[in-house]
Each structure stands twice: as structure tokens, then as C-alpha cells.
Amino acid sequence: MDTPQESNQPQIPNPPPVADTQGKAVHDGPILELSGISVHYGAVIALNDVSLGVRRGEVVAVMGPNGAGKSTVLKAIMGLAPVVAGEVFWRKAPLAAATHEIVKEGIAFVPQGRRVFTHLTIEENLEMGCLHLKDKAEKQRRLDGVMRIFPILQSKRGDLASAMSGGQQQMLALGRGLMAAPDVLLLDEPTLGLAPIVVKEVFDKVSEISDELKTTIMIVEHNIKGVLDIVDRAHVLDKGRIVFTGTPNAIRSSDILTHVFLGKSGAS
Amino acid sequence: MQAETEHDRSFTQIVRKPQALVAAARNNVELWANLLIIGWALGFMLWQGVGFAITVGTVFAIWAILSVSLNLVVGFTGLLSVGHVGFFGIGAYTVAILTSDAKYEQLRTEAIPTFGWPFFAALPLGVLLAGIVAIAVGVVFNRFRDDIYVLVSFGFAIISFNVFLNWRNLTRGAFGIHEIPRPAVGSWVLDRELEFLIFALALLGLIMLLSWLIVTSSFGRVLTAIREDEQAIAVFGYRTTHYKLAVWTISAMMAGLAGGLFASWTRFVDPNSFILLESMLLVAIVILGGLATIWGSLLGAMAFVLLEEGMRFLPFLPAIHIGQARLVVLGILLVLLMLFRPQGLVGRYRL
Fold it and tell me: How far is B145 from chain A (nearest CA, A)?
């Protein structure tokens, strides 16, 4: 199957200057980078020689149709996917930490489907995000910080997470990720199964996190229209390969999305 | 697993508005379950006399220690183990072998080494041994989850039973070990049934306190999180295998304690007390009472013991069939419970 624009070469180490749509400072070199990653689930090739990266302060989307391997990108970073080739680089050094140690490196993962602990209270859920932290004052400071971004969590802090709506649980999942005070936040389909009005709210919060906390964010999304409004760059995946990398405007003006989502063999 | 938060809410309503008590009580299954079982226990005591109630109370204390300890693993951490009886047996056999009376030795058809230790020296060793075996077994078990976990723990129960049965120069196999002394402090021997009951209830209280401290700590919250979503909690920097191994070992040590208590109380152990069925009954008690609730495990153990002991006296049952009839009734009860109240009598979660 030919693809219109093959760009799965490791183009990130020396990135071309990227037009920064939001006027934010973009630092040189990726803070987190996948280089030539291949992931096989048995005979199924989920990722095939994928190289992509995210620079400090950026919001980067990984998009693509179902089964393109979007979530596998994040799982490969977190050590939750069987990587057969390639390497993940974190601050220019190979990321060798085990899954449970990665959060201490400064990478927090907000998994698909929210996965909050429904039988714990909201506050206890948030504390789960930083139990490795022994400093009580720092924990309280982070708790206050998260509550400031998500006032809904403040007002319901003693309630069980099971009593929250899907959108509120997503806010809780985001807040739980932020409790680790990460340099990079990995979001896996944060709007999955949410009502359109809530989807907007989630994207607004992601922007807010990026603007106020200067957190670098890699977001895997199926909701193209919404996510393109909040990201600096996006990688488009199809059948386990990167087929396009560019700014939202570059993506909107190309027919790459039509191509990968609707399967039209578009002119290139 | 489903949440059951209605009870919490109704409780606060009662506190705020006492007149709502009657209305709230009418639909409060937990309240009725509590009243029923406590009333049943008191009625049983009046019916059969205090003497027999003391015996039943001791059986209850031992089952309750076992069910509270198993609930830590099954209810709070979500690991369905049917191998708990193995640790119960390790504790019982350690105490039996180390304390059994030397004078009895020449009467034995099969000789085993005699140590003649005091009970309070043997019990900690039994608890420790259960813990050591639990660590060794748990390291392997940690590789499994859910249904496979049930199967491997099933395997552990079978293996431990066969060790008790066939390691004859240590356990005397099917002959069992007799003449196990009661606990003694100096010259004061806990020979009277009431003394032993108080001792057993004190240990039960200790186990409950320890369990309560565990489940209300941050360690306990991680266990709850493991039950709900092990991968999600691993992502937040928790080495879940360590937590699972820790709670598994603590639970096994508690079961070992119950075993030592049991051996000293019955003064006789043989492999038949540690068959797989006992493990299954224990899981049934935990589910009957309710997962992830310490009080529920007490209620479950009480209901089970009352059912088991109470049916001895039913006039219409021929004596020889009572043993099987008890299991039939228990089985029917469990099926009914799963149909109408899957979270158990006072439970918060479903399997």
C-alpha cells in the first residue's frame, strides 16, 4: 500500500524549525523520542519502525484510524508493549527504567478509559499519583495545585470516584497524572466515550495544563477536529507507520487525513 | 465490581434525622443481616446452654481469624485464593509436632521426633514458617491473575494436603498427632474451655486490629487500587508484585496463627482438617460475609459456625446424614446469596 508522504525517517534529532502556532517557546531537541520502534503482538505488527518525538513545552498529537498503533506508541514508552526493535530516548539517553520507575523519571501516563480507582475517594485517587513522594508538604502543595486546575475535584474531594460522571473521572485521571509533577504527560484517548460538550472541556484543560504548568504533552486522540486546535504538531499513524508529521495547519491543508481515515487513494 | 454506597448515605441520614431511622432500617439489608446473626447467636446460646456456646465460640474465633486473614487477600487485594488451608495446616502441624507430649511417644504406632516445646514458643515458629512458605509460593503466584490464580492456589492446597498426609516421619500421616498440650504460661494452663475461648477471642481481636490498620493505611489503599486496576497503579510507580507478596505473606501468617490455635484447642491434628473443602468453605464464608469488610468476615464466620453446629440438633435429620446435610444447606445458601445479594451480607464489592 503506497502512502502519500512517507516520513518515518528519524527526522526528530535535528528538527527543522517548526512554526509555533501558539507563540510558545519551543526548546531545541526532543525531550522524549522514539527511534525506530517496532512492536509486534505475536504475528500482528502494531508499530513498524516508528520514530517520533516531543520537544520540551510542546503539545504533540498522535492521530490515526483505529488499529493504527496510536496507543501502542504510549505503551512502548511506558514499557507496556513488546518492543522488538528501536529505542526510547529520554533527555537524550536511553529510557531503561521499568514501568513502575518511569513516573519517577518525570513521565506520567494517563491511560485510556480513565481507569480511576472507583472504590477510593477522589483525594485518595490523587494521592495514588505520587505515593513515592515522602514529603507531606510537597504532596499537599501538588494536591492544592491540581485542585486549583480542577475545581470540581476540590468540591467532591471526599466522594468515591464511582460517584463521578465520565467527564469528571477524566478530570480526576488527568489530575492524578499531574500529581507526579511530570515533565511529560502522556494522554491516551482522554475524550473517549465523552459527550461533545465534555470533550471540549477536556481539551481546554489540556491546553490549560500546557500553558500554566508548561508541561510537555503527548496526546493520542481519535477526535481530530478537537485535538488539532490545541496541539503544536501532530504525527499521523496508519497501519503502524508514521505517514505524516506537521503542524495542524499543514495537516488541515493536506489530504492525509482523508487518505488514512477514509482509505481513499488520494492524489499526492 | 459494583459499588454499594447507599449504606454510607443512609447512615449519615440517620445521624442527621433520627425519625428517618425506621424508614431507613426497613430497607437496610445490612442492618437486618447483623441483627439476624447476632440474634441467632444469642438464641443459640440460650437454647444449647452456655457450655456449648463456649465451644461454638472457640470454633467461631478460629474460623473468624481465617476469614479475616483471607479477606485481606481475596476482598481487599482481589486475589481469589483457595489455598489458604495450606497455611492453616502449616501453623497447626508446626505447633502439633513441636509441642506434642513426649510421654505419649511409646504408644505411637509410628514414631516421630518429640520436642516438647511450650505452646508459646511453637506458635511464633508456626506463624513464621507459614510466612516463609507464603513468600516462596507467592513469588511464583505473583505471575498469575484471576482465574489462573485460583487454579494455582488450588494446586497449593492439594500439594500441602499431600505433604501432611505423606510425610509420615514428621506428621504421622493419616494417624495424626495426639496429645497436643493446651497453651500454658508458667504453671497456669489454659485448660478450661472458657479460658481458651477468651484467649482465642483476644487473638481474634489482635488480628482484626492488625487488619484494620493495614486496610486503612496507604498500603491498604494501594491494595484496593491493585484490585481495581493493577496496570494503572503500576504506571504510577508502584511495584505491585511487592505489595501483593506482602499482603499474601501477612495473610498466610495469620492463617498459621489460626492453625496453631486450632491444634492446641482440639489437641489432635490429622490431614482431614486441611482438605481442599475447608479452603472452599473459607472462601464461601468470606464471600457470604462480604468482600473487603472485616466485620463481614466475622458475620460470615458466625453464620457458618451457627449453621454447622446448630444443625446437629435438628430433630428431623438422622445423625449420620447431618455432616452432608450441612454442606447441602451451605451450598444452597451460597447460591441464593449470589442470586439475591452478590456483594455478601455487608459487603461493598462483588467478585
Answer: 17
Collapsed DSSP state (helix, strand, coil) of residue B230: helix
pLDDT at residue A199, as a whole number = 92
Contact yes or no for A104 and B237 at CB 8 A = yes
Burial of A65 (0-12, 13-18, 19+ CB in 10 A): middle
Provide the pLDDT for residue B24: 65
Q: Could you tell me the residue ranges of all domains in chain B?
A: 30-314+322-340
Distance CA B275, CA B85 (A): 7
Partner-chain contact B237 A109, CB within 8 Å: no
ipTM (interface pTM): 0.73
Nearest one of B96, B162, B134 to B247, comparing CA atoms: B134
**Residue A119 and residue B229: Cβ atoms within 8 Å?**
no
- Distance (Å) from the alpha carbon of B239 to chain A's nearest alpha carbon: 6
Residue A20 placed within a domain: no
CA A138 vs CA A24, A133, A180: distances in Å: 28, 8, 11
pLDDT in tens, B62-115: 999 999 999 999 999 999 999 999 999 999 999 999 998 867 655 666 777 888
Eight-state DSSP code of residue B32: H
Closest Cα partner for A103 from A120, A82, A78, A83? A78
The reply to whether A8 falls in a domain is: no
Asked whether the beta carbons of residue A127 and residue B231 sit closer than 8 angstroms, the reply is no
Paired strand residues for A39: A47, A83
Instruction: Report the number of distinct structural domains present in chain A.
Output: 1
Low-confidence ranges of chain A (pLDDT < 50): 1-26, 266-268
Chain B neighbors of A132, CB-CB under 8 A = 237
